[in-house]
From TrEMBL:
One of its GO terms (molecular function) is nucleic acid binding. Signal peptide: none annotated. This is IS21 family transposase. InterPro entries: Integrase_cat-core, RNaseH-like_sf, RNaseH_sf. It comes from Massilia eurypsychrophila.
Amino acid sequence: MAGKRIGDHQVGIYKKLRTKLGQEVAAAKTGISVRSARRIDASEALPSQREARKWRTRSDPFEAVWDSELVPMLAAAPGLTATTLLEEVQRRYPGLYDDALLRTLQRRVRTWSASYGKEREVFFAQTHPPGRLGLSDFTHATVLQVTIAGATLLHLLYQFALAYSGWRYVEVVLGGESFMALSSGLQNAAWMMGGVPEEHRTDSLAAAFKNKAEHELLTRRYDALCQHYGMRPSRNNLGVSHENGSIESRQGTLKRTMEQALLLRGHRDFADLDAYRLFVAEVFGRLNGRVARKFNEERAMLMALPTRRSSDYEEVDARVTKYCTMTVKKVLCTAPSRLVGHRLKVRVFAERLECWLGNVCVLELRRGQPDPVSGRGKVVDYRHLLPALKRKPGALARSVLRDALFPRTEYRLMWVQLKDCLPEAQACRLMVGLLDLAGNGGCEAALAQRLAALLAAGEMPDLEELQQEMAPRPAQCPTVTVVLPTLASYDCLLEAA
């Protein structure tokens, strides 16, 4: 085949086939040309046994100028390209050197550079032990063309990443690369990952200062921040971005992932800034899901955090399963289906749970307590499962969460009556309709009272009638009649005074 040398093994296969087949067929089966087959038949030596060729099959077109003119030019300026050299010899010797000789000259220049060229910069691959290095950087996000309520959002994205596991934290920054933006993002990242690395590296932060005095002030504040968390501060050399490569490369993957998520979303407009921040949190949450195993390994090697920002809660991790449930402190809780698959950081307060995805609180729940006997508990909000139940009402009949779904005893008793008196499918549809009316109609308590009356009378509920009955009444404004007093009455008051 053109461009590939025929080896000893290929020659052996050809000769073995040649004993049974003709020259053309044997050559085709071996993958060589008929011309090569004729040379093999004419020679007894294997390719490795032949003498290396030391002669040229074509004359050297640059023989007259290579040593005398081209090599001195390359020695004086190794950065010259073959195109420049060819244009120069064409200027010196018009009509002697055609443009088609460019590829030949490029090979000659490459060979000379490999033998006599200048030393090139060497990059040393680095090992990053877990928990040693964390990096911060800012990137412009204008290319994403995000709008808030139709207005273009000019913003940066701050990103923190762990060099070993690749775990990252991303925050929307309005403004420039200020120290406050760095401080806020770094601390939020530290509290989110539950520890700090030994060393924190940034670039020169050129956008955060304008003169020497401000530069010195920034350096002191940055050093103080790192000392507070027990990290060793470092910076890459000015203009040498590859020293910060563990974060620079992730800036590209972040924006590419966000671009794909925006394309999948269908549009780039958000109702408000909080909605966009939630979108960003979902994107880097998915990226962190890819490195969950390595992050769990590295998290154990991180240094402890200083005094907590707030000591009135405890943080635990919980993943929302495909059943829209998660377990927090041995208590099963429900969550909206939009959070399925996300790993949430749950802040456990005395009476409530705050579920955070990145720096956005996506859900607040009432905290439940484990049962003293079983050691387990449930906190089920039927509103979280209503959208899915409306699509699949038949799933209610044998759902393991069925009894916990009913917000009050009246609903559970009504389900028992519906199940006994109606076909299963009809009973499920009616019960889901009642739950939908209670949740979306804002009349859970009133509807419970109405169901209690129906249970006492042994009657079946009429969903349409209940919907009309529980519909919000239009507000009635009282008619106010204003009667103005006569001016003569003021004269009487003055006389009495």
